[in-house]
Request: fold
Amino acid sequence: MSNANPTSTRLSSVLRWIGIILLALFLAGFAVIFFMPGDWLRNMAGTKASALLGREFAIDGDVNIDWDWTTPKVSLHKVRIANMPESKEPNMVAIDEIDFQIKIWKLLSAELNLPSLNFVKPKIILEKFTAAKKNWDFPLLSGANLASKAVLPEDRFNFPIIGLLSIDKGKLVYRDNPKKLSLTLDIDTAKGGTGPQADSYKLSGQGTLQDKPFNIQAKGGSLDMLRNNTVPYPLALSIKMGSTSIGIEGTFVDPVQMTGIDAGLNMQGNNLADLFYLTGIPLPPTPPYKLSGHLQKQNTVWEFQKFKGQVGDSDLSGDLSYDIKSERGFVKANLVSHLLDMKDLSGFIGATPSKGTLSPEQKAQAERDKSNPRLLPDVPIDLTRLRAADMEVRLKANKINAPDWPINNLDIGFNLKKGVLRLEPFNFGVANGTIGGSLILDGRKNVPQIQTDLQIKRLSLKQFFTDPKFESLSAGHFGGRLKVKGNGRSLADVLATSDGQITLMMSGGKISLLIIEGAGLDIGQATPLLLGKDKSTDIRCAIGDFKVDNGLLNSDIFVFDTTDSNIEGTARINLKDETLNVKVEAHPKDFSIGSARTPITVTGRLKNPAIGLDPKELAARTAGAVVLGAFLTPLAAIIPFIELGLGEDSDCRELIQQARSHSGPQPAPEKTKNRRSKTRTRKP
Reply:
């Protein structure tokens, strides 16, 4: 969609305008030229044109006229137009030589007919200093609306008739300071004609855009076809920048007004984010992609319709429109993936996928990440891109490939306006349940802020156990809430300054007893389970409540209550240096020979934690009731924060009622249905 870029449209329009204005200056008063010497002509043209442009215009070289009453030939040498004072370049236009023929009698019928037109070493510098100040704005011409009429004739038939056009060693420079864009285009050749060369119009060039080299190839119909408004004008365009390739082939009903486009658009590359350099559309980093669709334009809106293809190992299809009318641009898209590979979304959080379809750069980055001791992505948030355009994008995935997580589907809306990105809706189907809510990235300030509020509802515990030994024995559901906000230039920085609360609750069903016994190092009971068939135990309730304060995550409540054991623990995670210190201890509800009850520890860095024992702190042989009683009172404090999302039969409701009784009078509890009394057969 490179043609969707307003920059490229302006460049071609302004280039046509400059050529037409120069010709108009030289053709005005053409009868006088025949009788006047070259020196007088240079002075007269300089004076009149400078007054018209409000800037110095000069012909510093010779003016040669090979007079012919029907088709005279004119040669002008060293033609220039001065630049604005703000520019470092002295001249906006500098042309070594302009040679042209003109059918002079055609001027009587207001027809501009040039059998030949040749530019030698033309150099044009176009600069945009601010949103309102551009060096191609000339007050007198703008006030009379002459520029727009010269750039865009009302009818293709009004376009000048040019027989043979050539440009020798041309250079076009475009700089857009507000958008930090810089473009240098070397035009090698541009040829077309009405005789034997009438079949096509060709142009090739090279340049740089934000230090990214690119080349461009274009092929269209003859210049006679350009003027024929009864048939669409054929055009083929290809642009290559690094690994990014864009091809457009089709027709324009009106190539002068850039309307009535009916073309195919094919694009591929190593990273969709690289399209920002060509289109101004802020897209996230992705694996290699290949997309094809239909390109149209209605007024100021470019549309990429019914496209489909691959992004990494995911399929992607949909419709996208880009309105270039406003200064920021507006993108609207509906995207669908029938099978989305979760690793292809790594770029959304600043991470690099480590496997699958990767570009050479991504493979190299994945190797570097292996030796990086840190886990959290520290790629800076690009505020320039975040503020470049507004958008409303909806992405739906019907099926998710995520081997490490039981994610079923997703539905995410990306709503970006004036530097604030809202992910609403933000819904994941996970383990037959849902994770949903909102995420806001505020990029209006130099240090962005991210805040999220997610609800976790009825996730199936069974789907998190991929080992066949445990899969058939694990059941139950869990839910909770995550509400965190922080400031920083990357995800790692945001988490290092974050504040908030994370609460998880689980209830119902069964879990492998081997897991419980192993956590308590109950050798007497765990050994036969290792040698024979595992069995399961009922879950009463599991609750984890964690406070996040300036990047430090501490557990207020961390208890797992089953009919066999109570497990309690403490957790401290430092998101600044990515270290953790977790201690977990089991309290069996029945006596077992060989029960050591030595706490299990998890320490070290988040990326490579170490699991071990704490022999210095043997747990006291306390009953499960003491463990539960210790957390009932703090449990009451988190009740307003969470919605259980576990169903009415949850045994956690009983523990919450106990917590309420410890914290004072509370409203009457909701009535529940179908209570499963068997999960309470062994109360502490």
